[in-house]
Amino acid sequence: MQILDTNPQLFFHLQQQRLIELIRNGKVEEALEFAQEELAPRGEENQSFLEELERTIALLAFEDVTNCPVGELLDISQRLKTASEVNAAILTSQSHEKDPKLPSLLKLLIWAQNQLDEKAAYPRINDLSTAVLEDPAI
């Protein structure tokens, strides 16, 4: 994938997430082998990658990862962070903005309706999930 060729940080984070999933599934031997073959060489090239790799490998040192100082790596938020990074890279590679437009447009709609509320009666959208225009109360 071309995106990964031009974005070593993204590639590392995807590989790191793969390592986290191996650890999560108790595949210790496979995780160590993967870290040694795939991630360690990248850590030698980049100090921040090495630090992230060390944090991830630290998960193996704890039997109870819920009390582990790096246990947040196993949280769903870590998966979401990696997924967001991938999505942003894909959008950027397709010459789109890295942030989706819909949340900004919805905020703009709410702001515009709030401005209009002070000045006029108009059909407004009260429920953004249905986007039904409702006639103004006269």
Automatic annotation (TrEMBL):
Pfam families for this protein: CTLH
SMART domains reported in the protein's UniProt record: CRA
Organism: Nelumbo nucifera (Sacred lotus)
InterPro entries named in the record: CRA_dom, CTLH/CRA, CTLH_C, Ubq-SigPath_Reg
Protein name from the UniProt record: CTLH domain-containing protein
Superkingdom classification of source: Eukaryota
Record domain CTLH: where: 2-30
